[in-house]
Amino acid sequence: MNVPFAEKLNSRISSDGSHDAGDCPWRGELRYDEPLRDHTSWRVGGPADRFYLPADRDDLILILRSLPAEEPLFWLGLGSNLLVRDGGIRGTVISTRNRLKELRHTDNGRVYAEAGVPCAHVARFYAERNLAGAEFLAGIPGTMGGALAMNAGAFGGETWNLVARVWTVDRPGAVRCREAREYRVGYRSVEGSDGEWFLACELIPGGDDVSGRERIRELLARRNATQPTHLPSCGSVFRNPPGDHAARLIESAGLKGYSLGGAQVSEKHANFIVNTGTATAAEIETLIGRVRETVLRVHGVSLETEVRIVGEKTRRTKTTP
Ligand SMILES: Cc1cc2nc3c(=O)[nH]c(=O)nc-3n(C[C@H](O)[C@H](O)[C@H](O)COP(=O)(O)OP(=O)(O)OC[C@H]3O[C@@H](n4cnc5c(N)ncnc54)[C@H](O)[C@@H]3O)c2cc1C
């Protein structure tokens, strides 16, 4: 099913993967069978058939317009909230890592950030200009696109509390500007524009505050003290159930330190599963299932995952041209 697209792309790239700018409209970087473990914070995940790093926003829109309708598409930020299975992802993965990284003040006194800007850069941008409200983003190791998709939050702050409007693109490449009020936003959930991805956002500064840098240092120190930041993970695996904490439920079910192959429930924070070095996605997924079953049996609470689990369990033959 992907062959026509692959052929179309193959006709425009040389064997080392580079494009011939002469006859190729795309300026980004196309890779085949790209190991997604290199693009996820858990350091696991099989290959993407095709992996595209757009040159910029216009290039991204152009490639979306050229994709055949049947080509499966997946968007990847910094892969810090994803469990990509060992069989990888079929179709094309669009990666915004190090791409779409414009970050600036707007004429109306707001902050414009493209989807690929790391959350930490936004926190720093605010703090350097004595703007309040984005300190919580400093410790979130994802992009603004991922933060918009997840409504990422920490220490009482949430991404969408800052958002005035966003720019999205749909599958055929049409760009829209949408106001924040068009979305239904909740705890780690955002609904309102199915079939569209975030290109950029405009954020509202929360007033003057000269203590932003100090507050960022404080919040990062709190993270280091309570989270296993030295080992690969995806942050919190489960959402907190109403009125409780997933970490408390997991710890009191006796699961802290419980391991399966290279995947382990962190000794430091029970809602983190860490890769101790050799974990596979299958081991992590099985461990997630065991934790969920045990918490249900012991506490009668059914935990929901915050991390998104994507891709195929088994590999198929290579798609490299
Ligand atoms: C050590 C650690 C600590 C963490 N702490 C926190 C925390 O305090 N609070 C918190 O909320 N999260 C936390 N996380 C989880 C994660 O960093 C956030 O969910 C982050 O927002 C994910 O961003 P990303 O760019 O890595 O997204 P990815 O993991 O790449 O993608 C996540 C989802 O967003 C979608 N997506 C990505 N980009 C776009 C786009 N441009 N448009 C539409 N959809 C898109 C993807 O398709 C996927 O479904 C932590 C993770 C780690 C590893």
Structure description:
The strands form six sheets. A five-stranded antiparallel β-sheet has the order 6-7-14-10-11, sandwiched between helices. Helix content is 24%, strand content 24%. β15 and β16 form a beta hairpin. The chain starts with a helix and ends in an 11-residue tail after the last strand. 39% of the residues are buried. The chain is built from seven helices and 18 strands. It has three domains: 93 residues, Uridine Diphospho-n-acetylenolpyruvylglucosamine Reductase, domain 2 (2-Layer Sandwich); 110 residues, Uridine Diphospho-n-acetylenolpyruvylglucosamine Reductase, domain 3; 69 residues, UDP-N-acetylenolpyruvoylglucosamine reductase, C-terminal domain (Uridine Diphospho-n-acetylenolpyruvylglucosamine Reductase, domain 1), CATH 3.90.78.10. With 321 residues, the chain is α+β, with helices and mostly antiparallel strands. Flavin-adenine dinucleotide (FAD) binds next to β3, α4, β8 and β14. The site of flavin-adenine dinucleotide (FAD) has 31 residues, from β3, α4, β8 and β14.
